[in-house]
From TrEMBL:
The keyword Secreted does not apply. This is Proline iminopeptidase. Gene3D superfamilies: alpha/beta hydrolase (3.40.50.1820). InterPro entries: AB_hydrolase_1, AB_hydrolase_fold, AB_hydrolase_sf, Peptidase_S33. It comes from the Eukaryota. GO terms for cellular component: membrane. Residues 34-284 form the AB hydrolase-1 domain. Belongs to the peptidase S33 family. Keywords: Hydrolase. PANTHER family: AB HYDROLASE SUPERFAMILY PROTEIN YCLE, MONOACYLGLYCEROL LIPASE. GO terms for molecular function: peptidase activity.
Length: 304
């Protein structure tokens, strides 16, 4: 696997003038490597640091492009915060990187956008990587909230968590106060936590948003869960996704449970499901070595 070196951040302007912060790992002067674009989760909270941690190790065989989506991290806080707009931004980045086809990766909320992209632009994909996600927004949101409200590890403000998952946050402070209440649910039970040290300095955290505590943007979260999620349902379109697809999920994920990921894998014709027995919401951090090997094996077998 490649040695991950410091990579500068680029500013890429979208067609509406919005600037996105982008990093590309594994870039070479001849641009001979295939492209992989990886999306972060947690709208208005997570940043490119999360997909960088999960996919930069592939930079010896891919150009790995990660970015702060509009409304998140260091990118402009300018909407609209819709799947259509976020998908258009991906298309612009694909062209900016000079790729006709590419591998798209997305975990958690990034998986929702990746699924919508695969439905709309499947001809552009040579592969699809999905991590801990769901195919139906309403059922997914209700399940996540129910899990939070019934988890004995958590002590939450019920009204505030309802605002998070219904997209009705009052302001950025409301968002900032809500996240620490629920961090524990994203990790596996203590008896399943693996204690092996990380291979790189940029290991992702159990909750992918905690690298961005200074970047709360409640407007992005409210749009994502108040407007986008009630409309998100790709269950009937899964059969139309032709790209080889890897679906990974933690056995102990209470936010996007195994059965949701099984539904996706059952629906996509060329798919493979991998369940990580010692993981919660993020196998890339909970079982790093296995996650990297599974991902690499899939890409070498199905894509390269």
């Amino acid at each position: 696997m490649a040695e991950i070196k410091a990579t500068p951040t680029s500013t890429v302007q979208m067609d509406d003038g919005v600037n996105l912060q982008v990093k590309v790992f594994g870039e070479d002067s001849k641009s001979t490597k295939p492209l992989l674009i990886a999306l972060h989760g947690a709208p208005g909270l997570s940043t490119l640091a999360e997909p960088e941690s999960a996919f930069a190790f592939l930079s010896d065989i891919f150009r790995v492009l990660v970015f702060d989506s509009r409304g998140s991290g260091a990118s402009d806080k300018t909407g609209p915060y819709t799947h259509d707009r976020w998908i258009k931004d991906i298309e612009i980045l694909r062209k900016w990187a000079g790729a006709e086809k590419f591998v798209l990766a997305g975990g958690s909320y990034g998986g929702f956008i990746a699924l919508d992209y695969a439905v709309l632009h499947g001809d552009k994909l040579s592969g699809l990587l999905l991590r801990d996600t769901w195919a139906n927004g309403v059922v997914g949101m209700m399940t996540a909230l129910a899990s939070i409200l019934t988890d004995d590890r958590l002590h939450v403000d019920v009204a505030r968590q309802i605002r998070v998952w219904s997209g009705t946050l009052r302001d950025d402070k409301d968002y900032e106060d809500a996240i620490p209440e629920i961090i524990a649910i994203y990790a596996p039970p203590e008896e399943h936590m693996l204690k092996a040290p990380a291979k790189d300095n940029d290991e992702p955290t159990a909750f992918e948003g905690m690298d961005a505590l200074a970047a709360f943007n409640s407007a992005t979260q409210n749009a994502a869960f108040g407007v986008n999620m009630p409309r998100f349902d790709v269950r009937q379109q899964l059969k139309d996704i032709k790209a080889p697809t890897l679906v990974v999920v933690g056995r102990h994920d209470k936010i996007t449970p195994v059965e949701f990921n099984q539904e996706i894998a059952n629906g996509i014709p060329r798919s493979r499901l991998e369940i990580f027995e010692h993981s919660g919401h993020n196998p890339a951090s909970d079982e790093t070595e296995k996650y990297r090997q599974v991902t690499l094996d899939f890409l070498r077998t199905e894509v390269l």
